[in-house]
UniProtKB/TrEMBL annotation:
Keywords: DNA-binding, Repressor, Transcription, Transcription regulation. One of its GO terms (molecular function) is transcription cis-regulatory region binding. The keyword tRNA processing does not apply. Transmembrane segments: none annotated. It comes from the Bacteria. It comes from Roseicitreum antarcticum. This is Transcriptional regulator, LacI family. The keyword DNA-binding applies. Residues 2-56 form the HTH lacI-type domain.
Length: 340
């Protein structure tokens, strides 16, 4: 692989002249510039972007870290974030940690060592003293997405889970459902806790009591939902509707109901916070919230770039939490219990 010394030798100039030509850090005559660029092409020299950015004191690379790229949400986010950053003149470095907080901290350290300009993190939120670990690990400007952690330290962009729960709950109530099962995720994760609390608040706001025997916590894997819905549906008074907060839950719910020979929506209605595949394209198609990853990505990029663009003499602004409003997409998975 050619080096800057090879370019200097071919152009018959100093390494300093080559560096100044490539970086634009000092004036170089047109004649010498032409010799340098001719030598670059002759040597097939590829400048090291990390080294260039170190010399310039800037970077045009942003790191994106997600818990699991295999999930539809993460894949949609990665594509939308790359587009949002590219439109603003930045490249994206990507990492996925399979929901392992230790790997996540290592990825943060590696990206920081590669001198990324900033980080956008969909935090795992797992493990003891997670918030303290994240704060200690992040030493470059960062914005969190999807989950809120240490809101006094980090900017965050997340779904408006309160509005989402209201949209889903009010829709089911309008159809006459009162016995609604709620499958929640891990405790201590902001998105899961917010959705669970907002569902209960939405029910209370309409004067409808929550059936505690239908409230299911820590259902965050396909197999958890698969088993839980079969337990729910053997209840002496089974739910008429089941609300899921993730695709993993939805997959398990539909598989569990099918295993029991139950039909959606004829025997039980199903509704979901998560609208990514396979919510679309199933039979029946699933009534769900549409989450705008394009807007989430644009807002996260804007927040991070505002941090990066702050002047040395400008005051540091307090962290912001931006909420992205979801939309309810009514499809085929919920039936009305009202007569006539």
């Amino acid at each position: 692989m050619a080096t800057i010394k090879d370019v200097a030798r071919i152009a018959n100039v100093s390494v300093t002249t080559v560096s100044a030509t490539l970086s634009g850090s000092a004036p170089v005559s047109e004649t010498l510039q032409k010799r340098v660029w001719d030598a670059v092409r002759a040597a097939n020299y590829q400048p090291d972007p990390v080294a260039q950015n170190l010399r310039r004191g800037v970077s045009t690379t942003i790191g994106l870290i997600v818990p699991d790229i295999a999930t539809p949400w993460s894949a949609h986010l990665a594509r939308a974030m790359q587009k949002a950053l590219s439109q603003r003149g930045f490249n994206m470095l990507f990492a996925s940690n399979e929901d392992d907080p230790d790997r996540e901290m290592n990825e943060i350290a590696l990206m920081t060592a590669h001198r990324v300009a900033g980080l956008i993190i969909a935090p795992t939120s797992l493990g003891d003293k997670y918030a303290e670990r994240l704060v200690a690990a992040v030493t470059t400007p960062a914005v969190l997405v999807d989950r809120v952690v240490a809101p006094d330290v980090f900017d965050a962009v997340a779904d408006d889970n309160e509005l989402g729960a209201q949209l889903l709950t009010h829709y089911l109530l309008r159809l006459g459902h009162r016995d609604i099962a709620f499958l929640s995720g891990r405790r201590g994760i902001s998105a899961s806790d917010e959705r669970f609390d907002a569902f209960r608040a939405a029910m209370a706001g309409q004067g409808v009591p929550v059936r505690e025997d239908l409230m299911c916590r820590s259902i965050f894997r396909h197999e958890h939902a698969y088993a839980e819905v079969q337990t729910l549906m053997t209840n002496a008074a089974p739910p008429t509707a089941i609300m899921c907060i993730s695709i993993a839950q939805l997959l398990g719910t539909m598989a569990g109901l099918k295993n029991m020979g139950l039909r959606v929506p004829e025997d039980v209605s199903v509704i979901s916070f998560d609208d990514f595949h396979p919510a679309v394209g199933w039979q029946p198609s699933i009534t769900a919230l549409t989450q705008d990853t394009q807007e989430l990505s644009a807002q996260a990029a804007a927040l991070l770039l505002a941090r990066l663009g702050r002047g040395a003499n400008e005051p540091v602004q307090p962290p912001q939490i931006v909420r992205i409003k979801p939309r309810l997409c009514v499809r085929e998975s919920c039936r009305s219990l009202l007569q006539g």
